[in-house]
């Protein structure tokens, strides 16, 4: 990553591959399209970063890559509603950018913002639409189960995109961007699927930090059948409350009471 400075106090970085794309754009006289794409991407990620900061998250950096951007932040303590707000803040910023570009008669910039808006609203992970859908479904459905389904859907969407790229090439219209973007989407979707346990542990660490800062928080009791994986239990803990867990047997008799710290310690020793 190449450091570009700071945006509203947040480190801004760019993937080195963008330099290669910039050189290619200059060679083929497409520098205007690349600039519009970068501006739209920066606005989109700035929307995520602003919403995350408004929700009390600690921001890490904003990274720009050839196939999208990443606003890194610690969202471990977000409630489902806040998670949806942060996820949809990017598309909202893109919508605003497209509207302003249309008003200013900047068609290329409007198209770049509109493309980001439409693609990111697809209900698959790791796209914004998938994150918002996961937040809406939780806690009605297990977070780990929703994550798995939406990640597999994202991987399938990536395969379909790559297949379209291959089909276009066979038909005589070579477009490597479709194939590469599809491969990137599938890879990122599967990577997100592989880390739910790690995310659960990080979320519990964040909850402990916020508990120490707040001093007082309401208590939520949860009940789970003895033998339930701790990472699944951690993923069901709502934000904003301190959770206590009752482990019960098949006859619904309480076998053990666990605090959040107990759950964290068992997550660390649990096989993924």
Summarize the structure.
With 272 residues, this protein is α/β, with parallel strands linked by helices. The protein is 60% helix and 17% strand.
Kindly describe this structure.
This protein is of the alpha/beta class. It folds into three domains: 1-121, no CATH class; 124-194, no CATH class; 199-268, no CATH class. The protein is built from ten helices and seven strands. Helix 1 (17-27) packs antiparallel against helix 2 (31-54), helix 3 packs antiparallel against helix 5 (128-137) and helix 5 runs antiparallel to helix 6. The mean pLDDT is 83.
Present the secondary structure layout:
Layout (H helix, E strand, L loop, with lengths): L1 E6 L2 E5 L2 H11 L3 H24 L3 E8 L2 E7 L5 H24 L3 H14 L7 H10 L5 H28 L5 H18 L2 H19 L4 E7 L4 H6 L6 E7 L5 E5 L1 H9 L4
Parallel strand pairs: 2-3, 5-6
Antiparallel strand pairs: 1-2, 3-4, 6-7
Helix pairs in contact: 1-2, 2-3, 2-4, 3-4, 3-5, 5-6, 6-7, 8-10
